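Input record (one chain):
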Amino acid sequence: MRDLVYAIQDFFMALLAPMVELAELELTNWWSANTMNWLFIIIGFVAMLYWLKQLKIFNDEGTEKREVVSHSFFE
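The corresponding structure, as predicted from the sequence alone:
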């Protein structure tokens, strides 16, 4: 039973190793550690702009369903 617990510990330590390295990097260089965060923010912002553009295209074409009923069960 003890070996199982240590195996689970080793698995999660290996799984979370990049986060530990990132936490240690933040102590030496804040800009390097937060570059990944800024990349995720930029990717999310670009994805949001693309999504809004697609919504506008479907709204202008009128192909979107605009029923008040949210589920066919309620009709």
